Amino acid sequence: MENNISFKLNFVEVKVAVNPLKRLLDVLREDLRLTGPKEGCGEGECGACSVLIEGKLVNSCMIPIGMVEGKEVITIEGLQKTKSYEVLRESYEEAGAVQCGFCTPGMIMAAEALLRKHPNPTEEEIRDGISGNLCRCTGYNMIIDAVNIAAKRGDGLW
Q1: For residue 139, pLDDT beyond 80
Q2: What is the average per-residue pLDDT within 93-119?
Q3: Of 4, 72, 121, 133, whose CB is crowded by the most CB atoms within 10 A?
């Protein structure tokens, strides 16, 4: 059973004809060809598939597409069109917070969500903000440094 699901994706209205129970992650990757959100665990534990829905960080592998009807969804591809992404990208590069890159889109989405809520976060708030995202390369300290750099560099942006 397919339904027409309409929502705003990366600042543009879209409509997809899909089963409303199909995972948002699968619709993004298979139907809409957005490969930034990645399938890591498929259980909402790793954060590789993180997107923003109505400004809130969510694991797209856990969301049926029917749940986004009429809502705003932003993926890393949409975030790349913003000034905040530019600040985050430069900060991650400067801090060496990108190694293999698999977790990076989800980590940047988590950092964006965190900085929207706490523009000048403490280290504890940063650790909490990225806690739903797993990284096997950096040991997290460089990611924490990157978010700190972004908060300072993007002061007033979030």
Answers
A1: no
A2: 95
A3: 133
Residues in the chain: 158
Tell me: the pLDDT tens digits for 47-57? 999 999 999 99
CATH ID of 3-78, from 3.40.630.10, 3.40.50.150, 3.30.450.20, 3.10.20.30: 3.10.20.30
Choose among 74, 47, 73, 77: nearest CA to 62: 47
Q: Where residue 137 falls among pLDDT bands split at 50, 70, 90?
A: confident
**CA 78 to CA 99: how far, in whole Å?**
22
Helix (H) or strand (E) run with residue 35 in it: none
Answer for the pair 155, 84: CB distance below 8 angstroms, yes or no. Answer: no
C-alpha distances out from residue 76 to 50, 81, 139, Å: 9, 9, 22
CATH 3.20.180.20, applies to 82-153: no
Task: Give the pLDDT confidence score for residue 127 in this predicted structure.
Answer: 96
